[in-house]
Amino acid sequence: MQISLRAGERIFVNGAVLRVDRKVTLQLLNEVTFLLESHVMQVEDTTTPLRQLYFVVQSMLMDPLDVSAAKMVFADQINGLMGSLTSESLRTGVMAVADLVAAGRAYEALRTIRGLLPIEDSILETSPISTKVA
């Protein structure tokens, strides 16, 4: 797999943070967990249930030495979400995320959550009581 990074960009590889000082292309030649800086969610952006779930899954990739703690939080969040979601598309998506995490495919789980965020946003925008922080 090849990844191109711009000057100053960071990538998280197996828990290590790497920053490049010039444009570079990396070739990942073996199995590795990584997360591009552009896909990293900051804690202040975790304003909705799915964004909070994203942050927990992201933690699994960024801190692989402490995955067990993140998996416990993830399980609690999944249970809470499944008990409160009324949207069938969100329920199906969240179950797919749970299956991906159980299979050790956290990166794909993040991609799935990113695809669900517009659905969550549209539901929260039409809800009379929004949980979003302005």
From TrEMBL:
| Organism superkingdom | Bacteria
A GO BP entry is:
bacterial-type flagellum organization
Pfam families documented for this protein: FlbT
Which keywords does this Swiss-Prot/TrEMBL entry list? Answer: Bacterial flagellum biogenesis, Cell projection, Cilium, Flagellum, Repressor, RNA-binding
Q: Where is the signal peptide?
A: none
Q: Per UniProt, what is one GO molecular function of this protein? A: mRNA 5'-UTR binding
- Under which name does UniProt file this protein? Flagellar biosynthesis repressor FlbT
What is the source species?
Segnochrobactrum spirostomi
Q: Show the taxonomic lineage.
A: Bacteria, Pseudomonadati, Pseudomonadota, Alphaproteobacteria, Hyphomicrobiales
